[in-house]
Known about the structure:
Elements: E1 2-10, E2 13-18, E3 21-29, H1 32-41, E4 46-51, H2 52-57, H3 63-72, E5 76-80, H4 86-94, E6 99-102, H5 104-108, H6 110-120, E7 125-132, E8 135-138, E9 143-148, H7 149-158, E10 163-168, H8 180-188, E11 194-198, H9 206-213, E12 217-220, H10 222-225, H11 231-239
Parallel strand pairs: 1-4, 1-12, 4-5, 5-6, 6-7, 7-10, 10-11, 11-12
Antiparallel strand pairs: 1-2, 2-3, 7-8, 8-9
Amino acid sequence: MRIIPAIDIIDGKCVRLSKGDYNTKKIYNENPLEVAKEFEAHGIQYLHLVDLDGAKSKHIVNHKVLEQIAAKTNLKIDFGGGLKTDEDLRIAFESGASQITGGSIAVKDPDTFRSWVQKYGADNIILGADANNEKIAVSGWQEESDKELIPFVQEYQKEGVVYVICTDISKDGMLQGPSFELYKRILEETENLKLIASGGISTFDELPRLAELGCEGTIIGKAIYENRISLKQLENYILN
C-alpha cells in the first residue's frame, strides 16, 4: 500500500483543517517545500497536495507551490483543489503534477471531468469522492450533493476511472481512526478499484488494517503533523 502524506495549502502555507472547516485552520509550517523535502528524506515517494484556496475560489491558486515542490523533489504529486477548467489542468500538469484529483467538477460538470479522463488517461486523473453520511460533498466540502457515494464511484468506474480518493469528512482531521467499514463496502461493491483511503488516520496500527482491506494507498495528514505517526515509522513500513 502506498503511503501518501498530505500537504494542504492556504496562503502558500502548510495547514490542516478539521472536518474541512476553514475556521479550524492550524498552520504547521510556513514553507511547504521544507515539509516535502523532509518526507522525501524518509523514503516517501508520493505527495497529496491540496490547494485549499483553489477549492474555495473554484480555480487553481497555489500552482507556484506545486511547481516549487515538483522542481526541487522527486515526489510524485497528486494535486487537487478547485480544478474546474481545461486551463486549470494544463497549469497543474505543466507545474509538475503527476496526477490531478477532481472532486466537485465530477459532480457539477461530469462532461468536463469525463473529457479529462479521455484526454489524460485514467492513470493521471483521480476521482475525489469526499462524503458526509455517504453523500458526496463539493466546493471544499462547503456543500452536500444528493449523490450517493458508492453508486457515484460505480458510475465513474464505467467511464474508465481507476483511482479514487475517498474521504469520510466526519473523520477528517479528527484523529479518531478511518472509516474501515466504509472502505470495506466500497471495495466489496466495486472491481479493480485503486482505492486511496483518506481521513481520520491516527495511529500507525491502522495502516496494515487498511492494506489488508485492499486499499491501494492511504493519505496521512494531521497524524504526521501532530506526531502521532513518525516519519521513521513510515520509512520502516515502506522499506518492509
